[in-house]
Design a protein that fits this description.
Structural class: mainly alpha
Number of helices: 10
Largest sheet: none
Order of helices and strands: HHHHHHHHHH
Strand content: under 5%
Number of strands: 0
Shape: globular
Helix content: 55-70%
Radius of gyration: 20 Å
Length: 242
Amino acid sequence: MPLPPGAAVVLPLFLGAVAGGLVAVVAAPLSTRLGLPAIVSTLLISAPAVSLASYLVRFPLAEPNTGIAQTPPLPEAAHLPALGGSGYLTIGLPLIAVLTTLWLYADGRTVLGYEIRATGQNREFARYGGVRVDRVAALALAGGGAFAGLSGALIVLGPPHRFVDGALTAPGYTFTAVAAVLLAGARPIVVPLTVALLTFLQVGGQGMEREAGVPSQLTQIVQGLIIVIVAVLATLRTRRPR
């Protein structure tokens, strides 16, 4: 769409967040009514969403005469402004930093943040305390989906400035994020640190494979061991008071 500068960036980011929130909130009844874990219900909903995106980029929105499942390049007005001399460092990084700060404040300093934490730790206790558990769970899922949709939009509006089939799923962002949250142990302030740790492991592993011939799968083994150790320690802490 021919949009003026500014709107050509803001509107896609906003719509990406809205789309992610709508997809995620569909999973709320599966979690609140049927008792499915949120991670299972959201993964179930993600499968048709990913397939729909793949169909669109392969057929109606495909770049003609290339044979590659990707859209045509986005217009110049829709490119994220770059920071410094690197074309890969954009305003997406400070934007995510600001949103992370707002999220940490909302989690630790607002009533909604308290209700979300109470619902996550003990749903029945939260219900007894007057929290509208189903609504809070739906808001939490919608918020998480909105962050995910915004992240995807930032990736598409950055280099190479187009949507490529599989580019948002093949790197394994989903399971890396799950591992980071497990590693944080229900402490939101630690999540940015665990995300950075796993990112360094993955990117460093790819560099080691190129430069030193060390298999990148070694970093996946290290990540798995970290998660197993954290899970064992959490289980021991839970059983010790009992």
